[in-house]
Amino acid sequence: MAAGIIRLVLVNLACSTICGNLVSGYRSFSIDYTNNCFLKDEKPFRFISGSIHYSRIPQYYWQDRLVKMYMTGLNAIQVYVPWNFHETVQGVYNFTGDRDLEHFLDLANKTGLLVILRPGPYICAEWEMGGLPAWLLQKPNIILRSADTDYLQAVSNWFGVLLPKIRPWLYINGGNIITVQVENEYGSYFACDYNYLRHLRALFRFFLGEDVVLFTTDGNTDRELTCGTLEGLYATVDFGTNNNVTEAFQRQRRFEPRGPLVNSEFYTGWLDHWGDQHAGVDAQKVSRMLAEMLTMGANVNMYMFEGGTNFGYWNGADHDTRFRSVVTSYDYDAPLSEAGDPTQKLLAIRDVIKQFRDIPPGPMPPATPKFAYGFVKLTKVGDLSSLLNTFSPLGPVKSHYPLMFEEMKQLYGYMLYRTMLPRDLSQPTPLISPLNGVHDRAYVSVNGVYQGLLERDIVLVMNITGKQGHTVDVLVENMGRVNFGSKINDYKGLLSNLILGIDVLTDWRIYPLDIDGAIAGGWPHSGGRSFLTPQDQCRSGPAFYTGTLQPNGIAWDTFLKLKDWVKGQVWINGMNLGRYWPARGPQQTLYVPGPLLSTTMPNIITVLELEGAPAHQQVLFMDRPQLNVTAGKS
Q1: CA dist., res. 322 & res. 371, Å (int)
Q2: What is the DSSP letter of 48?
Q3: Which element (helix H / strand E) includes 83?
């Protein structure tokens, strides 16, 4: 039913788009400074837009989400391009599958949606390192988002690949991109480097031409707009329901006395960090302020319209008073849910838009079907420390002192540090991270016995016992790099020495762990199983568990709950769904897209539990999410 509705809408849209192109010929998009508006093909134009991140939605659902946005009455979407999503390894570019940006732009075009493109190079977006690739940190003392020579060279190389792909999609060239942002909220950054902005402006003009509308977006303060704006880039603002609309646009007017009013990020919701209360913004507040802005003739982009999911290791983090990692779900309390379902907030927004422009006739495509598959039993495969040959087949790197993730060229996930106890510890002895050098969480075992953890900004000391020569394993987890502010140079791993009592621990063997590669290659089902003793089965600490969800002819969206599990990572059929941490909350379930599941073959579930599995090693597939359970409750 849903697919039929979407096909009918797309057929009608394709016909109208083709006919329009045949009749129109010359296309233009510009700013009318006399009448304070945009001009599209020389006629006044106002966008009502919503943000959607293709990087947070599997490709097979792009069309579904775009049609729902179109049927709400939007005439545009706003899109970030995460640099690190496309150039994870320096010099290796990926624009295929879920990274096929041009296919996404084409789908939006066929759906009848214009595009406001925000290609960075920095995007923030609660995305890992704000979209900047972590390999930049392999250059010592690099100053990100500045005229630093190494940084500018990397940006120039990247834009030399990206922007030529974008140019044919500009509206003036027959595509659907009407405006392009230069950098992102630069006024929030400490550098305030106008030479950097000038360099970016020159790159955009060189690759995209002189006629495209370039703009900046900054927070609603004088300082942010002062450092984030530059002549030749149209200055816009962002603000949410807690701001006064008139005052916010008056601030934009101080920097752009003439031209269209633009709120580039009108916040329909907000993000969650692990350990926080679930965030939300009242639908009536959103619809009331949207109506107020549209009445003023303003252009509005709603951030987010659908948030999606931080699959894998793509979540970012904040560091104001302390390090706080963003949860896996990016539901954002947005008008379309994490699973793309229309909400009451969406209906309220559509009712507002109806008052200002004609919205497409016909029904809103329904929510994708959901299914509660029930409980699945898991069995233990083995402790992580016993599987190093699988995840690190080349063996360890030896170093007198610890090396960071970036030095080891392992940028995401997990890395294991191993050394020996220098003396007998018959009494509990403090293991200390004196310089807060654990980035971000370290799980400590002695001779295979889990003894506790160290956590950045929170737990800097723990006690261990053991005998001289016993093996000390420190598994360090990268919980996502800081995506906003002055601390985006966020190195991972052991950044400084660990001190045991009076001893500095040295002579490390460091194992980079390619867990994702092994699982994508079919492990653990492709490899032999080792026999586990009852003692092995009950042991706490980092370990792997697996099970299968048997097909029953249905491959619908579902939500995975790991009740009584503590913290870890989940893969299904080789896809990294993201992190779980029900012990801290508020997120309790992980979104599982239906097309990921097979209807005919067993669906393989792999869990890395970092602290301790429950006595009943099972997981539950539900037909609805749980995103708002406070820590300690479920």
Answers
A1: 39
A2: E
A3: helix 83-86
Specify the long-range contacts of residues 94-101, CB closer than 8 Å, at least 24 apart: 95/165, 97/59, 98/54, 98/55, 98/58, 98/59, 99/55, 100/59, 101/54, 101/165
Q: What is the mean pLDDT of residues 7-12?
A: 47
Q: Where are the beta strands (DSSP E) in 581-629?
A: 589-592, 603-609, 618-622
The tens digit of pLDDT for each residue in 558-591 reads 999 999 999 999 999 999 999 999 999 999 999 9
Structure tokens at 499: 């001190």
For residue 586, cis peptide bond before it (omega within 30 degrees of 0) = yes
Dihedral pair phi/psi, residue 494, rounded to 5°: -90, 105
- What are φ and ψ of residue 537, in 5° steps? -60, -35
21-45 pLDDT tens trace: 433 468 999 999 999 999 999 999 9
- Cβ-contact 109, 9 below 8 angstroms: no
Neighbour-count burial of 480, counting CB atoms closer than 10 A to its CB (0-12 exposed, 13-18 middle, 19+ buried): buried
Tell me the pairing of strands 177-181 and 213-219: parallel
Structure-block tokens of residue 536: 């092995």
Distance separating alpha carbons of residues 5 and 429, to the nearest angstrom: 66
As a whole number of angstroms, the distance between CA 41 and CA 129 comes to 38
Q: Give dist(CA 511, CA 579) in Å, integer.
A: 21
Considering just the CA atoms, what is the radius of gyration of the chain in Å? 25
List Cβ neighbours of 94 (8 Å cut-off, separation of 6 or more): 86, 87, 88
Q: Would you call 265 a catalytic residue per the annotation?
A: yes
pTM over 0.85: yes
Instruction: Give 475-504 as a DSSP string.
Output: EEE----B-SSTT-----EE-S--EETTEE
- Tell me the C-alpha distance between 83 and 80, whole Å: 9
Catalytic residue among 126, 224, 256, 265: 265
Find the catalytic residue in 128, 183, 185, 477: 185
Q: Catalytic: 185?
A: yes
Of 544, 504, 539, which is closest to residue 524 (Cα–Cα)? 544
> Is pLDDT above 80 for 529?
no
The answer, yes or no, to whether residue 614 has pLDDT greater than 70, is yes
Residue 175 has pLDDT above 80, yes or no: yes
E strand spans, 26-97: 29-32, 37-40, 43-45, 48-52, 76-80
Region of 352 (left: φ > 0; alpha: ψ -120 to 50; beta: rest) is: alpha
CA angle (519, 524, 530) in 5-degree steps = 145
Q: Within 13 Å of residue 260, how many CA atoms lie on the same side as its CB?
A: 27
Strands 114-118 and 177-181 turn out to be parallel
**How many CB atoms lie under 10 A from the CB of residue 435?**
12
Residue 525 — pLDDT band, cuts 50, 70, 90?
Answer: confident
In contact, 437 and 494? CB cutoff 8 Å: yes
Residue 333 and residue 418: Cα distance in Å, rounded? 42
> Looking at residues 514-526, what average pLDDT do you find?
94
Estimate to the nearest angstrom the gap between the alpha carbon of 277 and the chain centroid.
Answer: 19
The neighbour count for residue 43, using CB atoms within 10 Å, is 10
Query: In terms of C-beta distances under 8 Å and separation of at least 24 residues, what long-range contacts does 204-210 make, across chains too?
Result: 204/159, 204/163, 204/180, 207/159, 207/160, 207/163, 207/164, 207/166, 207/167, 208/163, 208/166, 208/167, 208/170, 208/180, 209/167, 209/170, 209/172
CA atoms within 13 A on the CB side of 322: 11
Is the pLDDT at 18 greater than 80? The verdict is: no
